[in-house]
């Protein structure tokens, strides 16, 4: 997804903050670790358990507090921790660091200071009350660029707080390349922008003909150009090249940049840090390749190629309503209310949530945004860790403008792009909101209200039955935790939903603008959706880590096949009968643990514990199943763009042994050299046993996205969504849904049709007077100024994208 910030854009993000490049990526915001709770909320919470059902209802926005029994060892570094680590780093003269505010692209800088995820082997004893709190360590990402061969290196600083025992060590153990070092091949974004200006000058006539102006790297330009992502790196020669496609600049308010394409693209060689050695390697225009700029110009001049003017920005990309108002749509629609206040508890200090029989911690990082840890259900841990690892958006097309686009979005970061949610729209107005933040380039970046938590009725019952003289039906009230990360053109909504049947639904949805292609000569790669616009086909694959622990860490992966069979039974005259049966087996080792969902879903998988059979001898566990048709793995086999950096995207489900040295399936700077990634997921598979070991599953959500006219102006969450469900399998002796009293049983006499009893089991609906103004959030509170919703192309003179704006975000 995200066409808006191809490789160089992002690298300029990594480059000095002082950069004025139009590709400079802003918004490194977000944080967590909320401040203490306002007093008025505490008051409201105290009242909360004393519901007065006849008086006025409680205000929906009140916080409900709880106190975490343990410290959140997964929480982001505090301001003090991060600042002291930064100071410590600046004191290490070997690092030769320059403060970001003063740095050029030839100075070493600190990029990220963040919590180093504790090892599970240290965390579990603490969580189980059997060991000390693990020492906190910081991960420090440093960009070394005062050199001809710049690179990023990961370090480990700790233990914290900083003392005379704190050391700085290269961080290598989580990286199966052996070292946490990644070369940077595009350290000079400003020079590269100037190079593109120079190229544009050389074909000025063509650009003026096509767009009515040329590219000067100014905000007033009518045409933009930017590199594809990832860069191409020739493994033999080391040459670094990239394709760059020209696009009309958006002219209105709306974020339409990624819809506008021209089909005219240039390949550049940007090897090394001496811009005078950079060169043009050729041109592509709707089906034709030209080796030199002169060839391209000759072809335009002598009539070999025709100009096809790219469609400009227009109403077709506007999202505000148009056309007649739908019948009755002016009437306020149904809305969710929470008449008696929240029925869940939030410890905002520790980011710990309790709802009914569930509890868990929230963690938030720059790379991947929100993740959950230590999910307990009915007093026992079922999940140690659950979170998105990496998101791939892989395009294809007749030309390089699409074929060379394969984004690994954690490079840009899901944290910086998790903006404030709109109350009453993105989440119910009664939701509890959490802030997020992280420490980037020596500044704390925060986004208020960027995670929401709320309880909601699904609108259909969780269970019901009608019998001869009763009917019963059970409400399907569940808890949702949600965030949205806007990566360039696309908005990904991440959601975890907890249900009374013990199931957890993991969902991602996509909206926002598609990244389109130029229509001409591209019919095999998408639908024709506007005058000169193709809905460029692409795959979304979002990889998740799921570390289930079923009654402890020693677990196995059960495979259950529903198989057609022909059987002879003694009770059927010896005649063969065509039927089906169950085939139980186990995935014994990592050799067999790269799994695709069976096309007919006749195979089921569950993590079970063989050592704790239930009273019927069955192994308790949690099943994992796709809940939507779209749970995709990558269509492209052995992608020429992503090479070894997206091996996690090749199947639906994977199981491996848990290792402290394998905390994540990806690394956020893998896209800088996709053939030689710092974390290569394939190396997790070395034939180890999966029989009563600590297992970690990785699964993919996503979709094959073939945008059509219904993706204009935006893709919609309602169809672009993907869900996997984990649910108990023989884990309880009955379905725990029975425990909620939010159900009714109506007894009746069939003869007389008279109701003979109504049982509500102690549940009472609220009949208090509800102040509907509680459903209306004050949208003037929205922090649009801080939360830089990025547009493509980036525009340095626009205050939204300015350096000052970033500084404001931090404070
Ligand atoms: C979020 O940040 C704002 C501004 O600093 C603060 O007023 C609010 O209490 C914070 N919210 C939480 C839940 O900590
Ligand atoms: C409930 O609210 C009503 C109306 O405000 C009030 O008259 C009544 O005393 C309250 N009852 C309790 C138990 O607080
Ligand atoms: C930036 O450079 C100026 C001038 O050398 C210096 O006074 C200032 O302290 C530097 N800022 C930081 C944060 O190091
Ligand atoms: C330290 O960095 C500066 C640029 O900030 C560079 O000029 C200098 O050569 C570097 N020193 C060493 C020893 O690498
Ligand atoms: C985590 O485990 C690895 C592998 O055993 C070890 O090298 C590393 O030091 C541990 N990290 C911390 C923070 O203790
Ligand atoms: C470290 O600091 C502690 C207390 O501040 C002190 O007692 C100890 O001697 C110091 N150790 C070293 C090696 O400096
Ligand atoms: C761009 O062209 C100018 C003028 O010819 C030249 O001075 C500059 O070095 C060129 N820059 C790049 C990055 O090619
Ligand atoms: C036009 O220019 C192209 C590119 O140089 C060349 O291949 C082609 O033969 C030329 N055609 C004519 C009609 O001159
Ligand atoms: C389902 O598909 C699998 C292949 O993935 C096949 O082996 C199996 O027979 C099919 N089962 C049914 C019930 O069609
Ligand atoms: C992927 O493609 C490359 C280049 O064609 C080839 O060298 C490599 O062996 C392939 N790898 C796999 C796993 O197929
Ligand atoms: C809404 O928020 C704005 C900005 O914080 C504030 O000025 C205004 O008073 C608020 N309105 C209401 C009705 O609370
Ligand atoms: Cu898409």
Automatic annotation (TrEMBL):
Active site residues per record: 409, 490
Signal peptide: 1-20
Recorded GO MF terms: copper ion binding; primary methylamine oxidase activity; quinone binding
Gene Ontology BP annotations: amine metabolic process
Entry PTM: Topaquinone (TPQ) is generated by copper-dependent autoxidation of a specific tyrosyl residue.
Domain (DUF1965): residue spans on this chain: 258-323
InterPro entries membership: Cu_Am_ox_TPQ-bd (IPR049948), Cu_amine_oxidase (IPR000269), Cu_amine_oxidase_C (IPR015798), Cu_amine_oxidase_C_sf (IPR036460), Cu_amine_oxidase_N-reg (IPR016182), Cu_amine_oxidase_N2 (IPR015800), DUF1965 (IPR015328)
Start and end residues of each Copper amine oxidase N2-terminal domain: 84-163
Protein origin, superkingdom: Eukaryota
Enzyme nomenclature, EC number: 1.4.3.-
Modified residues (2',4',5'-topaquinone): 490
GO cellular component: plasma membrane
Keywords: Copper, Metal-binding, Oxidoreductase, Signal, TPQ
Cofactor binding note: Contains 1 topaquinone per subunit.
Domain Copper amine oxidase catalytic: 335-737
Family of the protein in this entry: Belongs to the copper/topaquinone oxidase family.
Protein name per its UniProtKB record: Amine oxidase
